[in-house]
Design brief:
By secondary structure, the protein is mostly helical. It has one domain. Strands 1-2 form a two-stranded antiparallel sheet. Helix 5 runs parallel beside helix 12, helix 8 packs parallel to helix 12 and helix 15 runs antiparallel to helix 20. The relative contact order is 0.10.
């Protein structure tokens, strides 16, 4: 390997070394607030994000580790967004974690290792590297879910997550092994070249493809492979729920692009039909079941299933009639949707943590009753977040949904236009449970338990949460810059 080979993966090497260093330093930290560990972690995340943003702005595209890791535009953008998301989660969750005695070194070091797994998945161009990143991310998350060892619900959620996560990994690994058996290669670009050249058994390839799509659907939380999402979202500490709902979703999007678009594009007719079925199931189950939920974390879990269904619609519309003339538009729309979803999710779960206090989790819809009387500003921020998830203008969620629907409609295929109409109708149904949260905050009387109780939060938490609400509105009014970045990431990455 030459020096440039290592330099291409310099941000990931920095992240690994910093995570190991912070794990050692934390052994000597006695401060209950873990200030030294926290600030070192935030410095690491800021440096890591800055390195990727600089590389993205210069258009850098290099291969590292004998061509098994690609430091291209999509890698730079998604790694930077993932690092910013993790930094925001750790900042917003400090008061919540300290009140529940989980503000430990493990929270910070496991978050960094989880991010490293995410980064490896995002840039992987080799089947073994994809699986390495996947397992590093998942094992870190399993431990984080079980961080409250004396909490039965968290332990149960960790067990469910572990068992179903192992099943999903088995599905994906079996599918990858079948593709390897058919092509004789573990390199994603080489797999693409072999399939494009023909002379393969199509039955074996499609059979392997089914397992790959099933494994990816598990990771995304798409129906009917969604059964772990509500239980894990509800049972995990809210800070861990927020970690699960942000960077790992971007990693799942990235490996979907790497495996299906960069590696198996010649089989697009087959996997697009599978993604279309998954997206419709996700929209139906997510939006309808969420209506019956009174626990807001479970409601947001089913909302996530529906949101992933919408994102898959863009991925399912890139290749029509054997040509990929619409793929840049379709995949950049899905990427924009994924980034805007992560942005909105951070604010939504941060509000749940903000309203929680010692000995009480603000997980029920009734905990948001009368929030406008206790804090009109926080009620306004939560209103913007709910409107964005519902896809109501002028928020970023509206533009994200419109971009995906436009990608479906421009195909001029009756099936895809019909699915777009169905997605709109299901989104209208889904708007009910988002608007119910808004109605509860603004029109319901606060519970006696919360009446007259002021909402306390540190200045940095208030600032970042407010910035999140402003960003949801700002990117909705002026989405061009973020969409241009997403388009640049896709165009400069895909051949």
């Amino acid at each position: 390997m030459n020096a440039m080979n290592y330099l291409a993966a310099a941000p990931e090497i920095l992240l690994l070394c910093a995570a190991l260093l912070i794990a050692m330093v934390d052994l000597w930290v006695t401060d209950p607030a873990r200030r030294v560990t926290y600030y070192l972690t935030q410095l690491t995340l800021a440096s890591y994000a800055a390195l990727h943003l600089v590389a993205f702005s210069t258009g850098s595209k290099q291969l590292a580790l004998q061509g098994m890791f690609s430091a291209d535009a999509m890698t730079h953008l998604l790694c930077a967004v993932s690092a910013i998301a993790v930094a925001a989660v750790l900042l917003l969750s400090r008061p919540y974690a300290q009140a529940r005695e989980i503000l430990k070194g493990e929270l910070f070091t496991l978050s960094l290792f989880m991010l490293l797994g995410v980064a490896i998945m995002i840039g992987a161009t080799h089947f073994l590297v994809v699986y390495l990143g996947l397992e590093l991310m998942r094992l870190s998350l399993y431990a984080l879910v079980a961080l409250r060892r004396d909490h039965a619900v968290s332990t149960e959620a960790a067990m469910k997550y572990f068992v179903l996560g192992a099943l999903a990994s088995g599905f994906l690994l079996y599918g990858l092994s079948m593709v390897y058996g058919a092509t004789g290669s573990l390199s994603i670009p080489q797999v693409y070249a072999t399939i494009a050249a023909g002379a393969l058994n199509p039955g074996v390839m499609v059979f392997g493809l089914v397992f790959i799509v099933a494994g990816l659907a598990f990771k995304l939380g798409a129906a009917p492979f969604h059964m772990w999402v509500p239980d894990v979202y509800q049972g995990a500490p809210t800070v861990v729920t927020l970690l699960i709902g942000t960077a790992p979703k971007l990693a799942a999007f990235a490996i979907t692009i790497r495996l299906l678009v960069e590696g198996l594009l010649s089989l697009a007719f087959d996997w697009q039909q599978m993604l279309l079925v998954l997206s419709v199931f996700s929209l139906i189950i997510g939006n309808i079941v969420a209506i019956a939920q009174t626990n807001i974390k479970r409601m947001l879990a089913y909302s996530t299933i529906a949101q992933m269904g919408f994102m898959l619609l863009g991925l399912a519309s890139g290749v029509m009639d054997g040509t990929g003339m619409h793929r840049f538009n379709a995949y950049s729309s899905s990427l924009f949707y994924a980034v805007s979803y992560v942005m909105t999710t951070i604010g939504s779960f941060a509000m749940v943590m903000l309203l929680a206090r010692q000995g009480h989790e603000a997980e029920q819809l009734s905990d948001f009753a009368g929030l406008s009387q206790r804090s009109p500003w926080y009620a306004l921020v939560m209103t913007l977040l709910m409107l964005s998830l519902a896809g109501i203008p002028p928020t970023v969620g509206f533009y994200a949904k419109m971009a995906v629907l436009q990608a479906l409609v421009v195909t001029a295929q009756p099936l895809y236009i019909g699915v777009a109409v169905l997605a709109v109708l299901l989104s209208l149904i889904g708007a009910f449970y988002y608007l119910r949260v808004i109605k509860t905050m603004w029109f319901d009387a606060p519970a006696q338990l919360h009446a007259g109780q002021a909402i306390q939060a540190p200045l940095d938490v208030r600032a970042v949460l407010s910035l999140g609400g402003v960003a949801v509105l700002g990117f909705g009014l002026l989405p061009g810059g973020l969409m241009a970045w997403c388009t640049q990431a896709i165009v400069n990455t895909l051949p």
